[in-house]
Fold this protein.
Amino acid sequence: MSKLLVIKAVFEAYLKAELIRERGAIFALISLSLWLTLFLAPLTFFTRETSSAPLVSGLVFVGILIFVSYTMASWDWGWELRWLLYQGILEYVIASGRDILILYIGIIPVSLIWLASVGVLAYALLTLLMGPPLLTVMNPLILAIGSLLLILVLLSYALILGGTTIAVGTSGPVIEFISWILPIATGGLTPLLNLPEPLRLFALCTPFSYPAELIRYALGLSNTVMDIWLECIVGLTYALLFFIVGLTYFRFQLRKILREGVKSVAIY
Amino acid sequence: MVLRELLRAEMLFVYADIFRRKSILVMYLLYPYILTMFIVLLGSSIGSYQAFKYRLGIDPIPFFLTASYLVMSILAVSDDILWKPIHDRMLGVLPYILITHVRKIAYFAIIPIPRLILVLVLGCFVLPPVYVMFYGIEGFYLTFEVVSLALLSSILFITFSILLVGVLYSLGGESWRVLNIIRPLLMIFLGIYYPRFLMPTMMFLISLILPPSYIIELMYRSLLRIATEYSYVLELLGIAIAISLIYAPLSSKAIATWERKKVREGVEV
């Protein structure tokens, strides 16, 4: 019961701070729509005369959502621990005797609300700029598996990033670099079939490419580079292993900072 | 004398921070490439590289690298100036800055110079590898041209940025949320990723009030090898400089208004 109260308190606090206070969500969505317009407008130069506008729009839509999911995992989940440390809140969380991960259970719904809002905004924007995105669920089961894998992989990534940022003192620009390069290099933005061979192999060696491929396949936007069920099995195994590694690493780093203290409290 | 002191202090402040945190320096170098990769990969996945070349007559890689480098140069000016009062307030030093004898217009005009120099130096390292690969030895000349025009457009943006600080912060206080809307809006209207001569009329008309948009148009005309008469080049340069100069007294007044408002009402902490 008390755990539920903590989760509710965290959820309310983040919802108010991030989305409600000073009309944060509205300002952020306007800002995001402008950034998206800035980067989407030149994409129209790439379209072929013969290409289907809804298909193109659908691919961009999925690319945007996956990119925003990575950003969310980097900043809202991974970097958040460093931010809490900087503000002196993390010490209280540790001293309360509760598991730090309880914070995530409260934060994740806020992040998902934000992601859903971005989805609606991106859909509207793409409809205006390129035409309504083609979003037909061809295989609901694969879509569910892909979405689940995406959350699992991003959570694992956030645990590794969070563990590293509190233990080593990683700075903001490094996180920024990672959150840009990761979706680009691992097939988050582009179907693996369209990537150059070396980059495709690299992407397949990471757990990140599988959820994106499954989601695109389930929405009928692209084919996968391997058999779909094999992709599901490999993706699921990889995601579970990655999660175990992430959780173990995070617990190890947490024990380390409890023993040795943090390397750097400064955030910049 | 005061200007020299200000410049020295700002340089020490900026360069000490950047050389202390080498990750920022690396990010400066990598950013134009990351943004280029982002757009080119996404673009290629939804269409084709060839379609881009057919439409604009240029390879997308040098085009977007130039555009991304321009983003860095323009943001060096606008971000430094627009964010400064917010950072100063957050750090608690804004009241001290307000009571100094330094003229605030001079203070704000000096702020972006150290970072601008850095971006220009970095331009000389970031652009040549790609330009030389695509254009051969001519790539060095193109680097010089792009870096010089980026410098000019950024300098011409200083007065407008100060005017924006004065007007925005006098009316609504120092709000980073509003700034997060203004920044991408400026990038769109400047025609950085989507040249302004291809923009819809309404957007084109708004872009006319931004001095760097003329220089950026000039840069794209050169990059896309659009035949441009010498008189039109001079016209674009002249209008950009004239508009920037017109903004100078206005920005001075706007900053003075903001300063008076702060002195009268106090600084929020």
